[in-house]
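Protein data:
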Amino acid sequence: MNKIKILLIGIILSLSASVKAEVLEIYTWKANEGELQKMIDAFMEAKAIHESEGDVVVSIEQTDMGGTGEYQYTMRWDNLLQWGAYKDQIGNSQKWQKFWTKWSRNPAGKLVATVSGGSLDNSKAEDYRDLYVWSAYEWKANPGRVPEMLQRMATSKSIIEKTGARVTIYSEGGGGSGNYHFVMFYDSWTDMAESFQNLASNEEWQSFNTTNDPTISTLISTNTGQKIN
């Protein structure tokens, strides 16, 4: 399975420091020709079942620039223990088993990527219930340079959030390549544009960029998109 340009994400689940971090699973789908609405309807039905069966927040997301028409079905939990309890619970759900049996017989789309992971910040699943748009940057640290890259990400987060964004830094887990994602969230595309405009004239940001060291990390991909439900 080829890894595509997707929003996120995640965490190395074995790290003890990650126990209290937001945990995610992202399933990226591409609709069959002429069956987009059928696929979205199935996502909506799945979301209703998932959220009724336990503590999880589900987002249906449409990729924009940087993608090729994919949709993401993103599941979020507040921490690793909540994730584990939910996985046990949903595995025994008759409603979910009935839905999946029906859907898998004649799917309207193809699963093209999966990734798990989590936040390196204090984000919680509840932070993503409302509609949002995002701009994401996937980075790969050069050998031995992870601490430096994360420090620069933390400084960038501090500056960018002053311009109106909400920033979360993610580390990939299962299904990923060990990369990190710097994701900026906004209430709307207009808010994103205003934030970018503010950043362009921000003296602190300009000064910070003069200290950039391109040997620390490599930009792998960029991506934008929006939550549609």
Q: What stands out?
A: The longest strand covers residues 109-119.
